[in-house]
Amino acid sequence: MATTAPQGAWPAKRIFRALLLGGAGWLTLRLLARPVDGCLLDLVNLPFHEAGHVFLAPFGHILHVLGGTLGQLAVPGLLVWYFTARRSDPFASSLCLWWLGENLINVSTYMADARALALPLVGGGEHDWTELFFRWRVLDEDSVVRISSATRGAGDAVMLLGLAWGALFVLPRAMRSDLVLRLAARAPRAVRLLSDG
Predict the structure, then answer these.
(1) Per-residue model confidence as pLDDT tens digits over 40-56
(2) CA separation (Å) from 43 to 39, 66, 157?
(3) pTM for this prediction
(4) Read out DSSP for 59-96?
(5) CB-based contacts of 170: which residues, under 8 Å, 6+ apart?
């Protein structure tokens, strides 16, 4: 005899998702308040950053230097695509989108340090963004502030978008179904972004 959860009950999957979103929300608040402090995920991002340098080294000096940033942004970006297109798991996609935003904030902190050179660097090498900004002739203080601030703003927006998208999967099924029906009338292709298969 099968039993069903009472209407409004919180199944384990929703509880787990709510806990994950709560943790991501807490980290978001910390990063919005003090992005320079970073978070534990930066230790996860670092190997992808360094791998980006290695993978793009054969394609010239500029791509080698830029490769660290591209590497750490490519991994969560590709995971957003993978979980959306290949796995049909939009909740996982939303968390990877949030992670992409967190990486953008990390990159903005690195960019902002291009003149001060205060951040400790792995291996003590050259500062990627100092070299890139110098080559692109935007190492003056105003340009560094403007570019790093725009990158931080993009990171803030992407993190918040990821949280909002993920929060939809914590809503009661009936409420989310209503949203899916409304979306289907306006944007049928976007329905899979809210469908929890």
Answers:
(1) 899 999 999 999 999 99
(2) 8, 19, 22
(3) 0.89
(4) G-HHHHHHHHHHHHHHHHHHHHHIIIIIS--HHHHHHH
(5) 14, 17, 18, 21
